[in-house]
Amino acid sequence: DAKTTQPPSMDCAEGRAANLPCNHSTISGNEYVYWYRQIHSQGPQYIIHGLKNNETNEMASLIITEDRKSSTLILPHATLRDTAVYYCIVRASNTGKLIFGQGTTLQVKP
Amino acid sequence: GAVVSQHPSWVICKSGTSVKIECRSLDFQATTMFWYRQFPKQSLMLMATSNEGSKATYEQGVEKDKFLINHASLTLSTLTVTSAHPEDSSFYICSARGGWEGNTEAFFGQGTRLTVV
Q1: Which phi and psi (to 5°) does residue A54 adopt?
Q2: Which terminal Cβ of chain A has fewer Cβ within 10 Å, N or C?
Q3: Which residues in B14-111 belong to E strands, given as ranges?
Q4: Which residues of A fall within a CB distance of 8 Å from B91?
Q5: Percentage of chain A modeled with pLDDT above 70
Q6: pLDDT of B71-89, one tens digit each?
Q7: Residue of chain A nearest B99, judged by CA positions
């Protein structure tokens, strides 16, 4: 499975955009990039996923570089409720397993 | 998104007893379910993958006789922690996926906090 690298922590001011980077330099051509977040003591929440095109939904935008070796999750207007651990995962194409790394702890501050 | 429900949300049991945790997909058929364990201040660790009607595939280091997984229907998987000990105390989380394609997202239950005393 491709490994991902994320910064351990980030801060963001409330109302500002939060840009969370992720490196996945060994990603294979048919592997998707998934983003989940986990608020304390809850199960992970699906945010967004993509293959090579940029994606947007009601929660966030996902920007994937042309070489697919990195991506950025963008929360356009962060709120205090967005404080969570954000996980960038490259899903194994054959097994479908989601292997979690350490993620980025995003702290949104007033 | 789709709803995955776990039951119970928390459980306290005595050492040596067995505990069963249920994971249900409420509004879709889950062809595959995954079980994770999470210790405090750590990330989720995948324990096993189960496909409906077949035996679960366990990750390296996970004892299949201790963590019994049953996926008898497309909407229900169970994890039984047998002869639980205090070191099994953890947050157990299931996830379910409805399709085989690479772009089918998995949804997670709310987790079950197990405390063995």
Answers
A1: -70, 145
A2: C
A3: 19-25, 32-38, 45-51, 57-58, 67-73, 76-81, 90-97, 106-108
A4: 41
A5: 97
A6: 888 899 999 999 999 999 9
A7: A96
**Confidence label for B101 from pLDDT (cuts 50, 70 and 90):** low
Distance of CA A107 to the CA centre of its chain: 15
Supply B117's token pair: 């005393």
CB within 8 Å of B11: residues ≥ 6 apart? B19, B21, B112, B113, B114, B115
The pLDDT, as a whole number, for residue A29 is: 84
DSSP class of residue B104?
Answer: -
Q: Cβ distance B26 to B91 under 8 Å?
A: no
Amino acid at B19: V
**Mean of the per-residue pLDDT values for chain B?**
92
Q: What is the mean pLDDT of residues A90-108?
A: 88
The reply to whether residue A32 touches residue B46, judged by beta carbons under 8 angstroms, is: no
Taking the CA atoms of residue B37, residue B39, residue B42 and residue B44 in that order, the dihedral angle to the nearest 10 degrees is 10
CB pairs under 8 A between A and B: 61
Identify the pLDDT of residue B83: 97
